[in-house]
Specification:
This protein is of the alpha+beta class. It folds into 2 domains: about 30 residues; about 130 residues, no CATH class. The strands form 2 sheets. A 5-stranded antiparallel sheet has the order 2-3-4-5-6. A 3-stranded antiparallel sheet has the order 1-8-7. The radius of gyration is 24 Å and the shape is extended. The N and C termini lie far apart (about 80 Å).
């Protein structure tokens, strides 16, 4: 092989390496924002129906007037409390959860949620001030995964790990909580995890969807 061919191969290799490195840094290491999820008309109607069942309605005033929930004077009508035929489960798809972020918070371009079989994952972007040493003006990318299931009549919540810029954080820095069932570990004593466990009848995460059923 002639030396000019070797030089050309070296130059092409350098260009490809630089281009690939720049693309990886821009899109994965120093990503500045995510693209917010936008639902189609059918998905939007389904999401609004779920939110209404939970008591949230972005168009409550007009809808309430049509359903005789508000009287002619504009006041909310009294209603006797009852749990008869009340829904005790909620279900959201991955797209619905990310769409809620896009509509109701500025986290839409900084936080993204992924639902896989038994696993909830999240990506979070945190911009750093320009005065920050070394990485000033850059955006840190955090990733985390939480295993969620329901076994032996109680929820299972396990932190699978946290990574920064693609580098896993040592378990010691996470307080030794990695791969530990938080409900089993902390649900014995009174507090959040005990109350959470006692109020959940079932919880299941599948590919693209999460379902939670509550106890009476």
């Amino acid at each position: 092989m002639h030396w000019t061919h070797v030089l050309l191969i070296v130059l092409i290799t350098i260009v490809v390496t630089i281009t690939g490195t720049y693309w990886i840094l821009k899109n994965y290491i120093f990503t500045t924002s995510f693209t917010p999820i936008s639902l189609n008309e059918k998905e939007e109607k389904t999401l609004q129906a779920k939110l209404q069942a939970l008591g949230y309605d972005s168009q409550f005033s007009s809808r309430a007037m049509n359903n005789n929930v508000i009287d002619e004077n504009g006041f909310l009508k009294p209603e006797k409390y009852s749990e008869k035929n009340a829904r005790r489960e909620i279900s959201f798809t991955e797209r619905e959860m990310n769409a809620l972020l896009a509509k109701n918070t500025d986290l839409a371009q900084k936080l993204a949620i992924d639902l896989a079989e038994g696993l909830v994952s999240a990506k979070l972007l945190i911009p750093l001030e320009k005065e920050f040493p070394v990485l000033g003006g850059k955006t840190l990318r955090f990733n985390t995964g939480i295993e969620i299931a329901y076994q032996n009549n109680q929820p299972v919540i396990i932190l699978k790990g946290v990574s920064i810029m693609g580098i896993p954080v040592p378990n010691a820095w996470l307080g030794g909580l990695k791969n530990i069932d938080l409900v089993r570990e902390f649900g014995v004593d009174p507090g959040f995890w005990k109350s959470f466990s006692e109020g959940v009848e079932d919880i299941k995460v599948t590919d693209g969807q999460i379902n939670i059923t509550f106890k009476e």
